Amino acid sequence: AWLPGADWSRLDWTSIDAARVAAPQRFVAPYPASLLKLMIAVGVGLAVDRGLCPWPAALEPMITVSDNDATDDCVALLHRVGLLSPARGNALNTIFAAWGLGTLQVNGTTPRGGWRNADGAGVGHIQMTAWDTVRLLWLLDPQAPPPPWLPAATPTLLPATRDRLLAVLARQELDEVLSSGRLRGLPGWVPGLPDAPAFAHKTGTTDNYAADAGIVTSGGRHCAVAVLTSLGRRFAPHKDCATTWRLPALGAAIDALLAPASA
Predict the structure, then answer these.
(1) Is residue 244 within 8 Å of residue 236, measured between CB atoms?
(2) How high is the mean pLDDT of the chain?
(3) Alpha-carbon distance 169 to 179, whole Å?
(4) 24: CB partners within 8 A, 6+ apart
(5) Longest Cα separation, the chain
(6) What span, in angstroms and rounded, lies between the C-alpha atoms of 126 and 72?
(7) CA-based, 20 to 30 A from 191: which of 80, 84, 108, 137?
(8) Helix (H), strand (E) counts: the chain
(9) Can you give 25-71 as a three-state secondary structure string?
(10) CA atoms in the 13 A half-sphere facing the CB of 68
């Protein structure tokens, strides 16, 4: 769909969510960029919870500074423990689907840790939608109400490692999409959502894509938020920006909408 000259109206579409096949809208979900590392982190948490491996040191830099080499290590680990092995049916995708998150998919990765376009993964193979991403965060949030799309008394996702993963998300250093503290002082700076740790989140940016998702707990606010867009660095107003100022402006609008009513 993203090749030059592609005519979306003539493409054969394969829905990644059967529940939405009959919907009238036809929309190519933007590539999540490094937001995909949230799915990898959940996979690592599942492996640790199951006693398949210890908590890897690579997970922290994969999330907090979006280190790609650390992501290679975590993807390779998930292959070793069988959660990303095609020979075992790509268990991570199956697990996401069992939790009702059918649009969260990690495909085409390699046992050596490859997950980029050049590895046969990347755009077109790794998918996320904002709705399923925010529901994944719902399942990770210990203060969230029971998920209404799942049966009552559904077990906790990551019962042993959830708090540890949320603590890593709260140490996010790239406040530059829905939050913008990292960019404070740049010309035209626009404030957004509260920065980490009040916004425990993961970002993703390339020249063509910008994404952000996390849990906000600040000033009486408590919500999960996710956005995936095609507003990458090519829309940035400054070389140090990751995207347009419109995305932190969106974050600020969400924050204002959810502000508790004053006494």
Answers:
(1) yes
(2) 92
(3) 14
(4) none
(5) 59
(6) 15
(7) 137
(8) 7, 5
(9) CCCCCCCCHHHHHHHHHHHHHHHHHCCCCCCCCCHHHHHHCCCHHHH
(10) 9
The answer to whether the CB of 233 falls within 8 A of the CB of 209 is no
- Measured from the Cβ of residue 237, the count of other Cβ atoms closer than 10 Å reads 15
Q: What band does 263 get if pLDDT is binned at 50, 70 and 90? A: very low
Quick one: DSSP state of residue 144? S
Is 60 a residue whose pLDDT tops 50? Answer: yes
Q: In the chain, pLDDT over 90 holds for what percent of residues?
A: 82
Q: Is the pLDDT of residue 87 over 80?
A: no
CA-CA distances (angstroms) from residue 129 to 1, 206, 215?
16, 17, 16
pLDDT tens track for 156-214: 999 999 999 999 999 999 999 999 999 999 999 999 999 999 999 999 999 999 999 99
DSSP type of residue 262 = P
Q: Is 94 exposed, middle or buried (0-12, 13-18, 19+ CB in 10 A)?
A: exposed
Quick check: 4 pLDDT over 80? no
Q: In what order do the strands lie in the sheet with 221-229?
A: 199-205, 210-218, 221-229
Select from 195, 202, 130 the least CA-distant residue to 166: 202
CA separation for the pair 75, 70 (Å, rounded): 9
pLDDT digits (tens, 9 = 90+) for 133-147: 999 999 999 999 999
The Cα–Cα gap between 232 and 16 comes to: 23
Q: Judge whether residue 259 has pLDDT over 50.
A: yes
Strand boundaries in the chain, DSSP class E: 105-106, 126-127, 199-205, 210-218, 221-229
Look at residue 261 in the predicted model and tell me its pLDDT: 66
Query: Tokens 């974050």 map to which residue?
Result: 251
